């Protein structure tokens, strides 16, 4: 099996190199309005944002920042197939503007924007992202009433494009081989993820200037979402590509990917990350299988034996739908002739 991974240097407000109805899944994390690290970017897109911040008008700046995201959401509606899924990782912002502290509810604005475009909201996920500070409050400290709860979570908002779910041909191998284990389903499809942690973006020393402009989420987040909401051979789009974490996850998961990114320099960062894809995909597959076998041993210790056997691996499974599960590893990667990405060859996971 082969997959392609294209990187387009361009503005996500116009995904001109992505055809209509050509993407099965979107996994992305946009710049968060009213988070200071993104002020300069938003002000470059709309100078009135910088003026509003300078004038102390937080509400106007918040509205104008979200207005810059609206064309991207329009494009996602265009490129997603009917029944395709969009997963938007976004955090709310807390900020003091003109002496007044408040929360700016980014997740509510994004939810409203997608619903107004005909997307059906699905149950979302909260993932815990602990603050660096040990303090669990902001404001006046130990006396009421002017202390504020700290934000230690982000949202993964999940939307379906239209009313109907995707359909597949009966017995589609690429769907059944992309199954997940029963216990993975129970962990992944819960509305609170406490086992995923935020991580600093590890950029090489010669990419120091990019460090301040990157806000990569942990690889585990896009990898889970890709496994949950797509099948082998599907195409995953990230319109806010950054250091390419979504594309790296798609590589490891045997899906195609497209990324849009304004900063050309991030492609160099991703070129370094691609070198790890073969070993990383192998490690992820083996770790999932190892964890499943540990789960089986735990069930047996409790006197419960799974009812079915996997076809491709020597392990029992809990349900019929898991029997065909088959992990893929990256066995080779070449650059595309157009020099805008990579072609990867995937083989069934080789076990030692």
TrEMBL record:
Stretches assigned to the DNA methylase N-4/N-6 domain: 23-269
Biological processes per GO annotation: DNA restriction-modification system; methylation
Pfam families in UniProt: N6_N4_Mtase
GO molecular function, a single term: site-specific DNA-methyltransferase (cytosine-N4-specific) activity
The enzyme's E.C. designation: 2.1.1.113
Gene3D superfamilies from the UniProt entry: Vaccinia Virus protein VP39
Annotated keywords: DNA-binding, Methyltransferase, Restriction system, S-adenosyl-L-methionine, Transferase
Catalytic activity field: a 2'-deoxycytidine in DNA + S-adenosyl-L-methionine = an N(4)-methyl-2'-deoxycytidine in DNA + S-adenosyl-L-homocysteine + H(+)
Alphabetical list of PROSITE patterns matching this protein: N4_MTASE (PS00093)
Family stated for the protein in its record: Belongs to the N(4)/N(6)-methyltransferase family. N(4) subfamily.
Stated name of the protein: Type II methyltransferase
Organism: Natronococcus amylolyticus DSM 10524
């Amino acid at each position: 099996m082969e997959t392609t991974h294209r990187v387009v240097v361009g503005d996500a407000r116009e995904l001109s190199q992505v055809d209509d109805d050509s993407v099965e899944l979107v996994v992305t994390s946009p710049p968060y309005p009213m988070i200071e690290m993104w002020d300069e970017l938003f002000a470059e897109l709309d100078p009135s944002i910088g003026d509003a911040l300078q004038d102390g008008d937080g509400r106007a700046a918040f509205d104008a920042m979200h207005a810059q995201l609206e064309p991207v959401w329009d494009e996602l509606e265009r490129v997603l197939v009917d029944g395709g899924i969009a997963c938007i990782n976004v955090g709310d912002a807390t900020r003091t503007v003109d002496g007044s502290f408040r929360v700016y509810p980014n997740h509510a604005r994004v939810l409203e924007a997608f619903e107004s475009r005909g997307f059906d909201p699905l149950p979302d996920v909260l993932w815990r992202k602990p603050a660096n500070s040990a303090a669990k409050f902001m404001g006046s400290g130990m006396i009421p009433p002017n202390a504020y709860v700290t934000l230690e979570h982000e949202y993964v908002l999940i939307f379906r494009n239209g009313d109907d779910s995707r359909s597949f041909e009966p017995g589609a191998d690429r769907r059944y081989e992309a199954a997940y284990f029963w216990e993975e389903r129970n962990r992944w499809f819960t509305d609170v993820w406490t086992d995923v942690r935020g991580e600093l973006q590890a950029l090489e020393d010669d990419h120091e200037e990019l460090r301040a402009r990157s806000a990569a989420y942990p690889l585990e987040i896009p990898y889970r979402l890709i496994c949950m909401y797509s099948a082998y051979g599907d195409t995953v789009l990230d319109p806010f590509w950054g250091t390419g974490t979504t594309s790296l996850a798609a590589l490891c998961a045997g899906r195609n990917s497209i990324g849009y990114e304004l900063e050309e320099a991030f492609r160099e960062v991703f070129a370094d990350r691609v070198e790890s894809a073969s070993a990383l995909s192998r490690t992820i597959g083996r770790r999932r299988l190892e964890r499943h076998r540990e789960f089986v041993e735990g069930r047996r210790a409790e006197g419960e034996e799974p009812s079915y056997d996997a076809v491709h691996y020597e392990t029992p499974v809990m349900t019929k739908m898991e029997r065909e599960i088959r992990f893929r590893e990256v066995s080779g990667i070449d650059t595309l002739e157009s020099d805008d990405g990579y072609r990867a060859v995937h083989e069934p996971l080789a076990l030692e």
